[in-house]
């Protein structure tokens, strides 16, 4: 059942991605031949207007087939007949819908587990925080003269201390108290003092935190991509990426741990798909957007259709090679 849940979840994420392309294509007046979820032979299909809606056997992808997307077409409703801005919006919509979907999924997660506050909920035994007298329910209002508005402010100030003494001002009961403490470096190389936050369950804060955490995760993904390009990934490339088999395994494990874990993993996968598709790699939405940018620079002069098709074919071959490699690594990890 967990594998079925993983496949359904992945199909839902792909559906959201393709729905973005589809809706903006329809809005721009592009003729859509097929809106498919899955790959391979058709399991189900129905036609409405000019568009065939189909579900295919392998739930590992999907596509929106538009008139004139990859070939010459004189149809005024073709993709190529639309303005650069319209085509860019269609391409960008897929990844953008995935990013929005990640935010939507995170909202119920944070409503359930709560969002970080600046009030202390945990004090680790024998930690620097306990030794100086910090207590549960103390509210941190200032660190080294910097106003504290969120838990990120707390962690950032401690991280930037470089192990030097920091001055912490807290609100306790109806008064305030000040403490000085020397942070300790943990195994990850971050400076900590042994405190945890008290979670707050509030729908408005959950919405806000879903946005901010999505931004933070996006930054981490971009950083990871930079490490991928420079070859500086901690633990090595093969141990840091996962293919379809690895993703199914991750989702299956999350499903065993409960619906909230499953939804959280789904949000990360959706965000990954959105960010990855915006990379300037041929055959991806990001690569197509780069070519549209070149067309705009050339004053609207389109690139040769055959050359563009060859560029995307090369990008697709590169992606397939990458997929085979990470799938091979997934299989090795299984054994």
UniProtKB/TrEMBL annotation:
<dbReference type="InterPro" id="IPR041489">
    <property type="entry name" value="PDZ_6"/>
</dbReference>
<dbReference type="InterPro" id="IPR004387">
    <property type="entry name" value="Pept_M50_Zn"/>
</dbReference>
<dbReference type="InterPro" id="IPR008915">
    <property type="entry name" value="Peptidase_M50"/>
</dbReference>
<feature type="domain" description="PDZ">
    <location>
        <begin position="107"/>
        <end position="174"/>
    </location>
</feature>
<keyword id="KW-0472">Membrane</keyword>
<keyword id="KW-0862">Zinc</keyword>
<feature type="transmembrane region" description="Helical">
    <location>
        <begin position="309"/>
        <end position="328"/>
    </location>
</feature>
<keyword id="KW-0812">Transmembrane</keyword>
<keyword id="KW-1133">Transmembrane helix</keyword>
<protein>
    <recommendedName>
        <fullName>Zinc metalloprotease</fullName>
        <ecNumber>3.4.24.-</ecNumber>
    </recommendedName>
</protein>
<comment type="similarity">
    <text>Belongs to the peptidase M50B family.</text>
</comment>
<dbReference type="InterPro" id="IPR001478">
    <property type="entry name" value="PDZ"/>
</dbReference>
<feature type="transmembrane region" description="Helical">
    <location>
        <begin position="262"/>
        <end position="284"/>
    </location>
</feature>
<dbReference type="Pfam" id="PF17820">
    <property type="entry name" value="PDZ_6"/>
</dbReference>
<dbReference type="Pfam" id="PF02163">
    <property type="entry name" value="Peptidase_M50"/>
</dbReference>
<keyword id="KW-0378">Hydrolase</keyword>
<dbReference type="InterPro" id="IPR036034">
    <property type="entry name" value="PDZ_sf"/>
</dbReference>
<feature type="transmembrane region" description="Helical">
    <location>
        <begin position="90"/>
        <end position="113"/>
    </location>
</feature>
<keyword id="KW-0645">Protease</keyword>
<keyword id="KW-0482">Metalloprotease</keyword>
<keyword id="KW-0479">Metal-binding</keyword>
<dbReference type="GO" id="GO:0008237">
    <property type="term" value="F:metallopeptidase activity"/>
</dbReference>
């Amino acid at each position: 059942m967990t594998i079925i849940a993983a496949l359904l979840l992945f199909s839902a994420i792909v559906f959201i991605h393709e729905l973005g392309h589809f809706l903006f294509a329809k809005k721009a007046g592009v003729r859509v031949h097929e809106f498919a979820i899955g790959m391979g032979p058709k399991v189900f299909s129905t036609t409405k207007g000019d568009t065939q809606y189909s579900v295919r056997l392998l739930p590992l992808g999907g596509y929106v087939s538009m008139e004139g997307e990859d070939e010459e077409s004189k149809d005024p409703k073709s993709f190529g007949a639309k303005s650069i801005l319209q085509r860019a919006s269609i391409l960008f919509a897929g990844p953008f819908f995935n990013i929005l979907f990640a935010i939507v999924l995170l909202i119920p997660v944070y409503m359930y587990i709560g969002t970080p506050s600046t009030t202390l909920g945990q004090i680790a035994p024998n930690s620097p925080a306990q030794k100086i007298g910090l207590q549960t329910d103390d509210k941190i209002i200032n660190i080294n003269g910097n106003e504290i508005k969120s838990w990120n402010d707390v962690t950032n100030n401690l991280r930037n201390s470089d192990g030097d003494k920091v001055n912490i001002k807290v609100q306790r009961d109806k008064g305030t108290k000040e403490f000085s403490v020397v942070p300790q470096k943990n195994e990850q190389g971050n400076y900590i003092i042994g405190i945890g936050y008290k979670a707050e369950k509030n729908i408005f804060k959950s919405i806000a935190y879903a946005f901010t955490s999505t931004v933070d995760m996006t930054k981490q993904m971009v950083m990871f991509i930079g490490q991928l390009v420079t070859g500086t990934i901690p633990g090595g490339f093969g141990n840091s990426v996962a293919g379809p088999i690895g993703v199914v395994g991750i989702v299956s494990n999350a499903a065993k741990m409960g619906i909230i874990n499953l939804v959280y993993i789904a949000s990360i996968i959706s965000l990954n798909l959105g960010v990855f598709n915006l990379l300037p790699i041929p055959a991806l939405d990001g690569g197509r957007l780069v070519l549209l940018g070149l067309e705009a620079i050339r004053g609207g002069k389109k690139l040769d259709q055959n050359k563009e098709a060859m560029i995307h074919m090369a990008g697709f071959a590169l992606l397939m090679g990458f997929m085979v490699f990470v799938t091979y690594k997934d299989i090795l990890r299984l054994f």
